[in-house]
């Protein structure tokens, strides 16, 4: 898969997550966050499991204990990010949630340098700031007074950034992206149901009321989008992946307008333009210094890592 196609997959994942923000918000009217997370990821696990078995059948070697351990670590990061985000939606607006979750765009390259000494192409820093500025403008250029939910969103962005970094490392090393996604989902589903049984009341009536949101976010926002993230990140760099995935804020604003009757002011439209510009720059600029070989396409492996 080419890097451009991988980035398109990540853009599509951002679209699905943008729509999922609306579903996550409306689901909280009927069901507790932990119950919602547990049920959502049960659906996600069931959606992806058949494809994980197919992938396992084509694999040249079985997964090792360290591979499964890596997948479970990713699952714990995903669960932490989901709990913080879903709980935060109880006490903050969807607009604030979209902006604050987008902080992972800046956190990914910063944590990459701190944890792994991975210095991205200089344009990534510019695009990260542009994308974050665009997300801020989508919020109207201001944040309604910080609430507990806002701080939870910021903490969640930290775990999204960590997950994005480690997915990039594990996906490249292990080469089983669908299995990786499936194990993550199973970990989150188990942890969500156990925590819901302890801290919330699980009632059939509330589950029925939230069923459309559970099914949509389980099958698409989790099952499809997180799998696309796992596949796409294997063929691009973590900072570039974060910038393309930040399009979820743009799509959240779009679907908020279509489904909830929200309308973007001029500053919000300008924010959309900045996000789109950052995605174009991070895709095009790193390639300007490299010429395609006469015999074929330039692969990601042929580009020095420090230039990605």
UniProtKB/TrEMBL annotation:
<dbReference type="InterPro" id="IPR051258">
    <property type="entry name" value="Diverse_Substrate_Transporter"/>
</dbReference>
<feature type="transmembrane region" description="Helical">
    <location>
        <begin position="178"/>
        <end position="199"/>
    </location>
</feature>
<keyword id="KW-1003">Cell membrane</keyword>
<feature type="transmembrane region" description="Helical">
    <location>
        <begin position="37"/>
        <end position="58"/>
    </location>
</feature>
<dbReference type="InterPro" id="IPR037185">
    <property type="entry name" value="EmrE-like"/>
</dbReference>
<dbReference type="GO" id="GO:0005886">
    <property type="term" value="C:plasma membrane"/>
</dbReference>
<feature type="transmembrane region" description="Helical">
    <location>
        <begin position="243"/>
        <end position="260"/>
    </location>
</feature>
<feature type="transmembrane region" description="Helical">
    <location>
        <begin position="151"/>
        <end position="171"/>
    </location>
</feature>
<feature type="transmembrane region" description="Helical">
    <location>
        <begin position="123"/>
        <end position="139"/>
    </location>
</feature>
<keyword id="KW-1133">Transmembrane helix</keyword>
<protein>
    <submittedName>
        <fullName>Drug/metabolite transporter (DMT)-like permease</fullName>
    </submittedName>
</protein>
<keyword id="KW-0812">Transmembrane</keyword>
<dbReference type="Pfam" id="PF00892">
    <property type="entry name" value="EamA"/>
</dbReference>
<dbReference type="InterPro" id="IPR000620">
    <property type="entry name" value="EamA_dom"/>
</dbReference>
<feature type="transmembrane region" description="Helical">
    <location>
        <begin position="266"/>
        <end position="285"/>
    </location>
</feature>
<feature type="domain" description="EamA">
    <location>
        <begin position="149"/>
        <end position="282"/>
    </location>
</feature>
<feature type="transmembrane region" description="Helical">
    <location>
        <begin position="97"/>
        <end position="116"/>
    </location>
</feature>
<feature type="transmembrane region" description="Helical">
    <location>
        <begin position="70"/>
        <end position="91"/>
    </location>
</feature>
<feature type="domain" description="EamA">
    <location>
        <begin position="6"/>
        <end position="139"/>
    </location>
</feature>
<feature type="transmembrane region" description="Helical">
    <location>
        <begin position="211"/>
        <end position="231"/>
    </location>
</feature>
<keyword id="KW-0472">Membrane</keyword>
């Amino acid at each position: 898969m080419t890097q451009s196609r991988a980035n398109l997959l990540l853009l599509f994942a951002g679209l699905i997550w943008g729509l999922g923000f609306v579903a996550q918000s409306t689901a909280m009217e009927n069901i507790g966050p932990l119950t919602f997370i547990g049920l959502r990821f049960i659906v996600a696990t069931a959606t992806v499991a058949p494809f994980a078995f197919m992938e396992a059948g084509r694999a040249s070697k079985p997964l090792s204990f360290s591979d499964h351990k890596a997948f479970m670590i990713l699952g714990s990061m995903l669960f932490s990010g989901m709990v913080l985000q879903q709980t935060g939606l109880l006490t903050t607006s969807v607009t604030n949630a979209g902006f604050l979750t987008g902080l992972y765009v800046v956190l990914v390259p910063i944590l990459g340098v701190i944890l792994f000494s991975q210095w991205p192409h200089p344009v990534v820093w510019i695009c990260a700031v542009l994308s974050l500025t665009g997300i801020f403008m989508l919020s109207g250029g201001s944040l309604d007074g910080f609430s507990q939910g806002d701080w939870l969103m910021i903490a969640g962005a930290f775990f999204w950034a960590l997950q994005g970094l480690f997915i990039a490392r594990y996906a490249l090393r292990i080469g089983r992206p669908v299995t990786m996604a499936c194990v993550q989902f199973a970990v989150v589903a188990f942890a969500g149901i156990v925590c819901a049984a302890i801290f919330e009341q699980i009632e059939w009536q509330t589950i029925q009321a939230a069923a459309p949101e559970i099914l949509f976010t389980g099958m698409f926002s989790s099952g499809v989008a997180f799998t696309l993230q796992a596949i796409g990140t294997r063929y691009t760099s973590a900072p570039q992946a974060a910038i393309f995935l930040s399009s979820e804020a743009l799509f959240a604003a779009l679907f908020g307008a279509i489904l909830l009757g929200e309308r973007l002011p001029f500053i919000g439209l300008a924010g959309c333009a900045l996000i789109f510009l950052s995605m174009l720059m991070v895709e095009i600029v790193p390639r300007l210094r490299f010429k395609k070989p006469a015999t074929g396409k330039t692969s990601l492996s042929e580009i020095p890592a420090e230039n990605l």
